[in-house]
Specification:
The chain contains 21 helices and 19 strands. It is α+β, with helices and mostly antiparallel strands. The chain has five domains: 95 residues, GIY-YIG endonuclease (3-Layer(aba) Sandwich); 100 residues, no CATH class; 116 residues, Nucleotidyltransferase, domain 5 (2-Layer Sandwich); 153 residues, Nucleotidyltransferase, domain 5, CATH 3.30.420; 49 residues, DNA polymerase, domain 1, CATH 1.10.150. Strands 12, 13, 14, 15, 16, 17, 18 and 19 form an eight-stranded mixed beta sheet that branches. A five-stranded mixed beta sheet has the order 9-8-7-10-11, sandwiched between helices. A hairpin with a 4-residue loop joins strand 18 and strand 19.
């Protein structure tokens, strides 16, 4: 690896996410060398570039790497499945190729009567009679599923030779992972019910299973059989852990999923490809376009990409923001590619999950772009030109609360290397009138700079009023700080901000000015950091009582909600999709609950 490639890789690693996902190693000409999966992308990819790599194959791979691309997903399982799709599609030279059906891992339920076994193996086992489920992307993934099945349904997994020789229950029975059919401790009828439930689980039918477990738990509790009730409750908890559906192997069809995002002067479009129902990865684009109308920007991008760049187009385009000329675009694409094209904005179920993945990736891509070293240096340079003084460090404060409740002040720190997250600080604001942002900012500034050195630039979000209050604090502390207030423009639109100085002067930079983009970036990060901590503090303080103020959520549905998730903490951690799985809740109520709890 030459020096330029090494510097480029080091910059990528510095800002890589720690989320699960798939990484792609690219060569000098952009050729794909290797595809891998990771539970933590930053840790896994960084491990290739340590000094003590001994394996010759890995050394040869690293020597050819010129670039790395990543795609984030929501879970390790999705990373496993996406990796498999990409390997089968591209067959990278440094991956071990899976050449035939014998390489895949399946879970099967044998045809043994009256007590079938559940096990895992490679290939569909033409010598083995029974039902097969899969393929699974790895033996680890299959074993993990088997463990869940053991805990949930207690179906035996032992070999037939072992099963036939048992005279007394084995350890699996003692730890409640088998019902001991080998010595007749369960009837064939009850065992068949557990086998049928295992099949339903492997087929993804977990909704009805969950309802049955709730009914059994409540019935056991009514007759004071609390140990049995706890058993069913624990089974419900296991089901919740695996109820999040995977969007990789679900439906037939083909689609391009397109997500657009704009932040601080950078536009990013993420395109992800689904073919034959399988997610095949995607790519981030950074078109040279700016503005506050995302729909029009996306429309322009779609026209440029599919009419000028793409050689083919799937039957569906799924977008994250609506475009103003959707019907005209569909007709134009139909004439150009001579096939019917549907552009969809509001989608459900699997397509909504594809849309969510694209939105996750576009946000991470734009975050990485903003962290780019050269872009950041240029922004700092232009800010120095505007302010007429050197700027090596910036700190910015923001206040977050809900109608005065759980007020939090945040302080974020930036330098020429980007965000210095280890230096971020949060302040819980107390002993002020609820909703008094001036008093909250005064308290935060006082606590920060009583002991901490001033930055080269102190940004005060809130404009002239907050700036004057900050000037009073600095005077009380006897400090000479260089401060700039930032007030939002008309309609609070990005790009219309006004900068206020302590001498009364104010300026409004052009929307495409890189100095303004840096100020927006720092201010937005302060807002994100404050609101994250505020929500956590607010939710902890409210506890279960928050459910009582949700419109339309009566006592029975509150009880169902708490029962399903095992308590208020489970409800607070649940996603909108998780909430939809609660029987009788409905999509609208699930969305309402999620918004009230999190927004």
């Amino acid at each position: 690896m030459n020096e330029n490639a090494r510097e480029h890789i080091e910059k990528i690693l510095a800002h890589m996410t720690t989320l699960p996902g798939v990484y792609r190693m690219l060569g000098k000409e952009g050729e794909l060398l290797y595809v891998g999966k990771a539970k933590n992308l930053k840790n896994r990819v960084s491990s290739y570039f340590v000094k003590n790599i001994e394996h010759p194959k890995t050394q040869a791979l690293v020597a050819r790497i010129y670039d790395i691309e990543t795609l984030v997903v929501r879970s390790e399982t999705e990373a496993l499945l996406l990796e498999q799709n990409l390997i089968k599609l591209h067959r990278p030279p440094y991956n071990i190729m899976l050449r035939d059906d014998k390489s895949y891992v399946y879970i099967f339920i044998s045809a043994d009567k009256p007590y079938p076994r559940i096990a895992a193996g490679r290939g569909k086992g033409k010598h083995q009679a029974g039902k097969f489920f899969g393929p699974y992307p790895s033996a680890y993934n299959a074993r993990d599923t088997l463990v869940v099945l053991q805990k949930l349904f207690n179906v035996r997994q032992c070999e037939n030779s072992y099963f036939s020789q048992r005279k007394r229950p084995c350890l699996q029975y003692q730890i409640k992972r088998c019902s001991a059919p080998c010595v007749g401790l369960i009837s064939p009828e009850d065992y068949k019910e557990d086998v049928d439930n295992s099949i339903r689980f492997l087929q993804g039918d977990t909704k009805e299973l969950n309802q049955e477990l709730i009914a059994k738990m409540e019935a056991a509790a009514e007759v004071l059989e609390f140990e049995k009730a706890v058993f069913f409750r624990d089974r419900m908890a296991l089901l919740r852990d695996v109820q999040t559906q995977q969007a990789i192997y679900k439906v037939k069809g083909e689609a391009d999923i397109i997500a657009i995002a704009y932040q601080a002067g950078v536009t990013c479009v993420q395109i992800m490809h689904v073919r034959n129902g399988k997610m095949l990865g995607g790519k981030s684009y950074f078109p040279d376009m700016q503005g506050d109308d995302l729909g029009q920007m996306l429309s322009d991008f779609i026209a440029n990409f599919y009419f000028q760049v793409a050689d083919e187009i799937p039957a569906e385009l799924i977008i994250n923001v609506d475009i103003p000329d959707r019907e005209d675009m569909e007709e134009a694409l139909h004439q150009h590619f001579e096939k019917k094209i549907h552009i969809k904005y509001k989608v459900r179920e699997t397509r909504a999950e594809w849309q969510e993945l694209a939105q996750m990736n576009v946000q991470h891509a734009i975050k990485g772009k903003l962290a780019d070293h050269f872009e950041l240096n240029e922004r700092f340079h232009q800010l120095e030109q505007v302010l007429g003084r050197p700027i090596d460090s910036i700190e910015c404060f923001d206040i977050s609360h809900t109608m005065g409740e759980a007020t939090i002040a945040s302080c974020v720190v930036f330098d020429a290397g980007g965000a210095r997250k280890r230096d971020y600080r949060q302040f819980a604001i107390n002993d002020i009138t609820e909703g008094d942002d001036y008093a909250a900012m005064r308290q935060a500034l006082t606590r920060r700079y009583k002991k901490h050195m001033l930055p080269d630039l102190l940004l005060i979000d809130g404009g002239k009023g907050q700036l004057h209050m900050a000037m009073d604090v600095m005077q009380e502390l006897g400090l000479d700080a260089f401060m700039v207030g930032v007030s939002k423009g008309e309609g609070r639109k990005p790009g219309l901000e006004t900068l206020h100085f302590t001498d009364g002067e104010k300026i409004q930079l052009a929307e495409d000015h890189k100095a303004l983009h840096l100020i927006q970036q720092v201010r937005d990060e302060a807002h994100r950091f404050a609101i994250t901590k505020h929500r956590a503090k607010r939710d902890k303080k409210r506890g279960s009582s928050v459910l009582e103020v949700i419109p339309g959520l009566g006592p029975k549905r509150r009880r169902d909600l708490l029962t399903h998730f095992g308590g208020i903490q489970g409800v607070l951690k649940a996603s909108e999709n998780d909430l939809k799985l609660v029987p009788g809740l409905g999509d609208v109520m699930a969305r309402t609950i999620y918004k009230i709890l999190h927004e």
